[in-house]
Amino acid sequence: MVVFCFLVDQKRKVRRSKPAAGTCSRCGGGASVADMKTATRFCYVPFYWKSWRAIICTFCGAILRSYG
Ligand SMILES: [Zn+2]
């Protein structure tokens, strides 16, 4: 039996982060500068990675600002 898979998803990972000035607009938590890595997966097999930097909330994980 052949199973066709058309599932594409993205997995976001914080590689490292350090505290930054500013607060989250959603919850008021502290912000931090984070090196992010996003893996785009097709059928759970990663085929594309992208590294980027963002200001994220350390409390709720919201992305407050992203660079590239
Ligand atoms: Zn927040």
TrEMBL record:
Give the superkingdom in one word.
Eukaryota
Q: What is this protein called?
A: Methionyl-tRNA synthetase
